[in-house]
Amino acid sequence: MVKTTIEYGDEIIQVEITDEVAEFLDSDRKRQQAQDRSDRRHLSKGTFEKDRVESQRTSAFKDETLFKVVHKMDLDKLRFCLRVLSESERMLIELYYFENYNMETIGEYFGISKMAVSKRHKNIIKKLRKLMET
Fold first, then answer.
1. Cα distance between residue 92 and residue 37, in whole Å
2. Which of 4, 61, 93, 131 has a CA that sits 20 to 30 A from residue 36's CA?
3. Which pTM value belongs to this model?
4. What is the pLDDT of residues 58-107, one digit of tens each?
């Protein structure tokens, strides 16, 4: 028999347990410590940085006025970027996002395959992202 201490709520109690139970508790404690070390190792810097930036952004947007201003600026920039697109690119975006057409229906409208519409859509979104970054 082995004496061990157990935390029970706010109390610390000393109890006698068998060697078998003591070995199990010790191995379980070591397993938990190894898991904690593994979890810390796998917390990548990228994830940490992303979480930190996200928390800063969230705290910055607690002011509703600031959030509305930034949102308006983003919308204005998006409107400008949409004007830079060609007529057919704007039409594809309008049909997909505003008219809720699926890729197949848009393909019929343009006389191209669903896959071609998907490829064009992907390229347009890349183009918009690039324009939004500048």
1. 50
2. 4
3. 0.51
4. 555 566 777 788 888 888 898 999 999 999 999 999 999 999 999 999 99
